[in-house]
Design a protein that fits this description.
Helix content: 40-55%
Distance between the termini: 55 Å
Radius of gyration: 20 Å
Oligomer: single chain
Shape: extended
Length: 90
């Protein structure tokens, strides 16, 4: 029996016309993305933050090293200082 973790990754195959339609749809969606510069001050449950970090931390990377680090900042003063420093860099 094959272990699913050792099987090579493969994407589903689509007919050429469906593949073209999907690619065009994806391009249209990507063209609509925007950078968010305004954020809500509504609290976010800690479990949502932890799940988002777990998902981000499992993203593919070169040689599967996941060379990133995450920090959760709860202090409004610290958030403000980070924002001001980032804006100064721009």
């Amino acid at each position: 029996m094959n272990d699913p973790e050792t099987l090579p990754y493969s994407l589903p195959r689509h007919a050429d016309d469906e593949a073209v339609a999907r690619a065009r749809d994806f391009a249209e969606r990507i063209a609509q993305r925007r950078t968010c510069r305004w954020f809500s001050d509504a609290p976010v449950p800690r479990g949502v933050i932890e799940a988002a970090i777990a998902a981000a931390g499992s993203a593919p990377s070169g040689a599967n090293h996941q060379p990133w680090h995450f920090a959760v900042v709860a202090s409004p003063d610290t958030k403000r200082a980070i924002r001001e420093a980032a804006e100064a860099e721009e």
